[in-house]
Amino acid sequence: MTHALKYHHFKTLHQQEQPLQLYNIWDAGSAKALEATGTQAIATSSAAVAMAQGYEDGEYMPFADLLRTAQQIATCSDLPCSVDFEAGYTQSDKELAANTRALLEAGVIGINFEDWDKSESKLRLAEEQTARIRAIKQTSDTLDLPLFINARTDLFLRESNPNNHQNLLEEAIERAHAYKEAGAECFFAPCLNDPALIKELCEKSPIPINIMMMEGAPTKAELAELGVKRISFGFAPYLEAMAGIKKAARAFMA
To answer: What whole-number distance in Å separates Cα of residue 139 and Cα of residue 183?
Structure first.
């Protein structure tokens, strides 16, 4: 498929009755393994990509390494590929545009883009994040290479007490609307696990909602009933794969 066809196919997968399930991968080998299962799209986990190359999550890995991994995945697989871009690997709007361009030219058709500011250890103001999303969208439009932006909010992830998540829902809904106006086509709320809050977010968001499977989260069937359109797994698949290697190695060396 052409870049445009991959993008449109990926976008359509967010409009089905059943949620799109993205079992996140970290390199070309894991992408090929997943492709063999019949999956319809591929998405990376930033933590898994970083850990697979010996780095911690959180943009400690150089962008050049992420780009090389993205190129290898896009080259080895014909499936639509979405990459976890974290916060763009830069504070500069100029470099953000350049990094976006590089991913697009590598064959990436989608990204996760988060609103956490690592340099300040705080959530970006909604106005600042929408400006950054617009910069990404403008780069995509200028190149005439469509890009599916999954706008991630760290509102719930950074609040460790789930009892306080209710107090954050209104802001999350406001951010979903703002990010959509800036060019985002999906809204990712990791660590939001309360079924009632997920349902309300799905009902009030102008774009599809992405929820991450994790301990305490509703089941896949329950998420579908709540209105979730995209389910991702984060770096759990990487941890499971590494645990399998350790188990096999220990058994072999016993």
So the answer is: 11
